[in-house]
Amino acid sequence: MRIRERGEKAAAADIAAIRRNSTVIDPDWDLVASAAQFKAGSGLAYADAFCIATAQRLDAALWTGDPEIVDRADRLPCEIVDLR
């Protein structure tokens, strides 16, 4: 949701809904190591590598519009859902 399209109040409501339906996963050393391996092997940004490592750990799909991730979907250990 873009603030410019619907305004700050609507954006705040969207963020609140996402927070109600989300679980925060604190990184542990295993997740850090897994993300570092993805980063080293792929050249992806470390934040992107954390997303992939987390999706793999949870056996979950990674929903993203990031072309750097989507373009590597066939080489990643989790399902990628292209939001573009």
Q: Can you describe this structure?
A:
- This protein is mainly alpha-helical.
- The protein has five helices and two strands; from the N terminus they run H-H-H-H-E-H-E.
- It has a two-stranded parallel sheet.
- The mean pLDDT is 92.
- The two termini are 13 Å apart.
- The longest helix has 14 residues, at 29-42.
- It has a domain at 26-82.
Task: List the topology elements.
Blueprint: H1 3-6, H2 8-20, H3 29-42, H4 46-58, E1 62-64, H5 67-70, E2 80-82
Parallel strand pairs: 1-2
Helix pairs in contact: 3-4
What would you say about this model in short?
The protein has 84 residues and is mainly alpha-helical.
List keywords for this structure.
84 residues, mainly alpha, two-stranded parallel sheet, 2 strands
Report the principal-axis shape: globular
- Which residues sit in consecutive blocks of at least 5 with pLDDT less than 50? none
Estimated structural class: mainly alpha
Tally of separate helices: 5
Q: How much helical structure, as a percent, in the residues?
A: 55-70%
The whole-angstrom Rg is 15 Å
Report the strand count: 2
Order of helices and strands: HHHHEHE
What about the largest sheet? 2 strands, parallel
Strand order of the largest sheet: 1-2
**Average of pLDDT:** 92
Give the strand content.
Answer: 5-15%
Distance between the termini: 13 Å
